[in-house]
């Protein structure tokens, strides 16, 4: 035990030493080659991030400046410490619904507390090395999570597109009287921005589509003097860093929000890492280091008056497409956002709100993976149900409960699939005089196997010897052992003598109580053939074929003396 503990601690320390060395090496390599191309890539990403950060802040009920400050601070910290070279850290679409909810319920000061607490939780998760578990999350659950986020974003931005955001924050608040006040000019600008967002990636894949769409929206409003709502003026500059004020805050409620936020931000960041790794084909992200870095970024964001952050898939993908190869690109985009906050703040009040909302609606729509859903429908329709259950659970309750619903639905699907893997077939033995039956089980034996075991024993005649062959059973858990025991009990009640062959050590342990209770009517053999030969010689007193637990080495008969199987009072 002590040796195992020492090995685990050595492996743990080796991981973090390796992570530190790899990070230092990646920074050294970043300045040795490709500096110019990565600076250009960073500028490109900043042009994509600028409108997205502003749009996300406004969607969460915050000033646009909060999104820019957040992108600058968190982006630098993520670039410095992250377990991935090319991930861009900043405000993220997946965090917008829960961020908006926290602001609406508790206010901005409480959001800072929740963001700080969530960052601390992420650091703890990273130190506990749970980052590797992201690969265990089923794909339908992930797709359902992203689809729910997309619906929420669309829901919150549609009133802005209609020009009635001051009267309704979400679609469900729209009433006939509010709809009569929709703005044609606002809708026109919004639809034009949506059209650019959808068409430009096909026409010019390398163009910073969100920035081009935003610029065209601003130009249309300025040229035609359209009466649309604008972004509030940005005060400019950074506030001095400070810890949020905890006095008087409902820490119990905020702690629950922090746990949910930490989980969502962590899952989103690690999913982004998996996606970027697949795009680049380079070294894999160090998931646990990335969690720690994201936690530090959230704490830094909270201290500078920012909003929650995660690794952002849209901006990270833009970095890869722009040719980024090192940490310089994420760093440059963050520094440029800081420059915008300091130098270009007076220009921000010329940005139409509807342009930002339209950009965000397209991003939210693209989070729904229609192609994956169609593929699932063709090949595994139950997975579409898991996707829908996850999304519906999130939309009707909250993120944590919705994801749990999806995971439980996936477990049900897994159990169903595993049950279908259990195959049974029966062969009437060559010892016709004895009428013995050999039942072969193939596949995992667990809690969902009871029905098949019941059907397997339905047509066996009374008092016929039955040999159950477990040679092709790769896995047996306690529920499977109990299901097998019930099948054995049913056979023995019908007067059958039961043999189990090819028992693994695990199966022997789990079925030991069954053997102890069954007595002479339940025996174990190394193979069906040995059991059949023993049945043929059942009258002989000295049987060298089978191995009782207390017999000398070399004997093969296993006998357990006990009253009856599962005697009950």
How would you characterize this protein structure?
- The protein has 569 residues and is mainly alpha-helical.
- It folds into 3 domains: 1-29; 33-368, no CATH class; 422-536, Transcription Regulator spoIIAA, CATH 3.30.750.24.
- The protein has helices at 2-30, 35-59, 64-81, 96-106, 108-127, 139-162, 176-179, 184-203, 209-224, 251-280, 287-303, 313-321, 328-343, 353-366, 370-379, 381-396, 399-421, 450-456, 478-493, 505-518, 528-536; strands at residues 89-90, 310-311, 423-428, 437-442, 466-472, 498-501, 522-525.
- A 5-stranded mixed β-sheet has the order 3-4-5-6-7, sandwiched between helices. Strands 1-2 form a two-stranded antiparallel ribbon.
- Helix 2 (35-59) packs across helix 3.
- It is elongated, with a radius of gyration of 32 Å.
Overview features:
Transcription Regulator spoIIAA; 21 helices; 7 strands; 5% strand; mainly alpha
């Amino acid at each position: 035990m002590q040796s195992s503990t020492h090995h685990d601690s050595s492996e743990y320390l080796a991981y973090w030493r390796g992570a530190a060395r790899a990070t230092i090496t990646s920074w050294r390599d970043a300045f040795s080659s490709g500096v110019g191309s990565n600076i250009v890539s960073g500028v490109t990403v900043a042009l994509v991030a600028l409108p997205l950060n502003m749009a996300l802040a406004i969607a969460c009920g915050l000033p646009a400046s909060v999104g820019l400050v957040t992108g600058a601070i968190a982006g630098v910290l993520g670039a410095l410490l992250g377990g991935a070279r090319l991930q861009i850290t900043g405000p993220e679409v997946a965090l917008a619904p829960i961020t908006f909810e926290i602001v609406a319920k508790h206010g901005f000061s409480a959001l800072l507390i929740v963001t700080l607490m969530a960052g601390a939780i992420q650091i703890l998760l990273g130190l506990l090395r749970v980052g590797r578990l992201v690969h265990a999350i089923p794909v339908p659950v992930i797709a359902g999570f992203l689809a729910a986020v997309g619906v929420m974003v669309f829901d919150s931005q549609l009133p802005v597109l209609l020009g009635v955001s001051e009267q309704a924050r979400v679609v469900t608040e729209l009433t006939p009287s509010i709809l009569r006040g929709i703005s044609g000019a606002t809708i026109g600008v919004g639809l034009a921005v949506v059209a650019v967002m959808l068409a430009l990636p096909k026409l010019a894949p390398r163009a910073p589509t969100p920035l081009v769409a935003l610029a065209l929206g601003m130009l249309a409003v300025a040229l035609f003097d359209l009466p649309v709502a604008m972004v509030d003026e940005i005060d400019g500059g950074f506030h001095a860093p400070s810890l949020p004020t905890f006095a008087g805050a409902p820490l119990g409620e905020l702690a629950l929000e922090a746990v949910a936020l930490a989980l969502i931000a962590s899952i989103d960041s690690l999913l982004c890492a998996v996606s970027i790794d697949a795009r680049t084909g380079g070294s894999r992200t160090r998931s646990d280091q990335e969690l720690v870095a994201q936690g530090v970024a959230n704490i830094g964001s909270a201290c500078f008056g920012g909003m929650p952050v995660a690794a952002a898939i849209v901006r990270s993908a833009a970095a890869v497409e722009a040719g980024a190869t090192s940490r310089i690109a994420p760093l440059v985009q963050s520094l440029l956002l800081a420059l915008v906050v300091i130098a270009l703040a007076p220009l921000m009040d010329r940005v139409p709100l509807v342009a930002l909302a339209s950009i965000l609606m397209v991003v939210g729509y693209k989070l729904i993976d229609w192609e994956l859903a169609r593929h699932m429908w063709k090949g595994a329709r139950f997975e579409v149900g898991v996707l829908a259950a996850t999304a519906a659970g999130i939309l009707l309750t909250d993120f944590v409960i919705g994801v749990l619903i999806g995971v439980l639905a996936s477990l049900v699907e897994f159990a169903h699939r595993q049950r279908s893997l259990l195959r049974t077939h029966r062969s009437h033995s060559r010892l016709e005089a004895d009428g013995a039956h050999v039942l072969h089980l193939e596949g995992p034996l667990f809690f969902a196997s009871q029905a098949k075991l019941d059907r397997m024993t339905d047509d066996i005649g009374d008092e016929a010897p039955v040999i159950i062959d477990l040679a092709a059973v790769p896995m047996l858990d306690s529920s499977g052992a109990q299901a097998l025991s019930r099948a054995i009990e049913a056979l023995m009640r019908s007067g059958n003598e039961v043999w189990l062959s090819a028992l693994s050590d695990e199966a022997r342990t789990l079925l030991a109580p069954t053997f102890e209770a069954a007595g002479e009517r339940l025996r174990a053999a190394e193979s069906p053939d040995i059991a059949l030969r023993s049945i043929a010689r059942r009258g002989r007193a000295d049987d060298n074929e089978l191995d009782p637990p207390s017999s000398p080495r070399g004997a093969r008969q296993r006998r357990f003396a006990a009253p009856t199987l599962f005697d009950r009072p």
